[in-house]
Every structure is written in C-alpha cells, then in structure tokens.
Amino acid sequence: MSRPAASPDAPAYTRPTRPRRPGPVARLGVSPFDPEESPLGRTRRARRMARELAVIHPDAHCELDFSTPLELLVATVLSAQTTDKTVNRVTPTLFARYRDAEAYAGADRAELEEILTPTGFFRAKANSVIGLGRALVERFDGVVPGRLADLVTLPGVGRKTANVVLGNAFDVPGLTVDTHFGRLVRRFGWTAEEDPVKVEAEIAEIIPRREWTMFSHRVIFHGRRVCHAKKPACGACGLAAWCPSYGIGPLDPEVAAKLVKTPATSDTE
Asked: Which of 84, 125, 160, 261 is flagged as catalytic?
C-alpha cells in the first residue's frame, strides 16, 4: 500500500496515512472485536499490523536498564505501579549495593526500603525483593532460572515478569501482557479477552513464536508513544488502515502528531 511521503520534520513514530472514515468503533460504538471476522482474516490483518509496527518502532527495546538476569528480574518486579524511568533512577544505587541473590536475601530492610522509596509501595517491594533473594538462594543456588514454570514460583513474579526476563535475558520468546499490550490488542480487534493469561494465549496463536519478544516491545512502545489510553493519535498512526478503532482519537494529522511522544518525552510507564 503506497503512502504519502513523510514530512522531513515529522516527529518520531509518526506515519502519515491516507484519509479514511473512522472505523466501526468510533462510528457505531461497537466492540473492536468482530466475531464475523474469520480467524484466518484476523491473523492476516494482525500480522500485517505487526509488520507495520516493526517499521514504526525500529528502536523498540526493553526500557529497563540491566546487565544480568537478576538485575532485570529485580527491576521488573520494582516496575509495578511506577514508570521504567523511575526504576532506572533507583537501580544504579540498588545494583551497586546488592550484587547477587545472597545480598538481597540478607538485606537490611530499612536500608532497602529507603532505596526503593521513589518507586512507591516500597515496603511491599522490599518484601518481594528480599523474598526473591531468599527463594533464589534456597531453591536455585542463587541463580535466576531460565524456565517459566520456575520463575512464576518466585515471590512477586507472575507471567508478565517471567516473560520479560525470559525474552530479554535468556532469548526465550515471550509475550509481555502489560496494561499497554492488553489495551492495544483489544483496540486492534485481535481479542476480546480481559484476563492477561487468556490474552497471552490468544495472541500466541496469531503472532509467530519467534517474534513474541520484539513484538511485545513494539506494541508497548506504540501504547506509550502513539496509541494513548485517553487520546490516541489516530491521525498520525501507521496502523490506521487496519485498525477498527481508528477515529477514537483526533484524525487531523497536525493535531494527532502533537500527541505522539518521542523517546525524550515518553514517560515509559
């Protein structure tokens, strides 16, 4: 499909699209998920959108800073109810002070809570991190396991966190169903499910396994930068041609482009 040439000063992540009328969600108030769409048709549309996401977000990556599986595991646990940027401000001090699972297991609670205070819910997070360290020491010789079944037995670790660690620290494909991911795949009309486990299962049937990790990053990037929860930048979105929710946000390209966040302005929630 040919597209108008992009303006040389267009913000990052903006993809001009040909004008079209709003999709059925905006026009009729219906669900984005069309039960009349065949599974094959939905899969073909989804994979076309996934290819476009790769073009829109060539820089998609895990936005938590880490250098080891343990660092990523801890950072992901801390990212609950806060932004990745906040976690990244805290972890340099944290990782320098606690270098292995044994250090977390024996951490002074007051000292750990003080470091974690900016992330919010610091008492609960301190409990999770200390418990995580103890579980790793007691059951895995202090080493982060590389299997989903083992990771989800650790304190504070669910499927989302486990898939983040597997995909980015072990190169094991995983789908990260966070708030952004769930919101977007429902807006795209790929699933009507709300439960993250069911969402993961349905999207796993649509997107090839080898693409799961990078696909997750691209969807999350799109949710943070373009397809916002309250006012998506529909008029600047490269997925407009295939999205049933097109039109729930501003359609004017200039207005929409102002809503698109660059890496510098994204809050990386």
From this structure: 160
Task: Please state the pTM of the whole predicted model.
Answer: 0.90
**Contact between residue 228 and residue 251 where contact means Cβ atoms under 8 Å apart:** no
Closest CA to 172 of 180, 181, 162: 162
Is position 125 annotated as part of the catalytic site? no
Active site (annotated) includes residue 160: yes
C-alpha 90: how far from its chain's center? 20
CA atoms within 13 A on the CB side of 241: 14
Is residue 18 within 8 Å of residue 4, measured between CB atoms?
yes
- What DSSP element (H or E) covers 96? helix 84-97
For residue 34, which of 224, 186, 241, 194 has the smallest C-alpha distance? 186
**Enclosing H/E stretch for 198:** helix 196-204
Q: Which of 84, 125, 178, 261 is catalytic?
A: 178
Domain spanning 69-169, CATH architecture: Orthogonal Bundle (1.10)
pLDDT tens digits along 119-171: 999 999 999 999 999 999 999 999 999 999 999 999 989 999 999 999 999 99
Domain limits of the chain? 24-61+175-257, 69-169
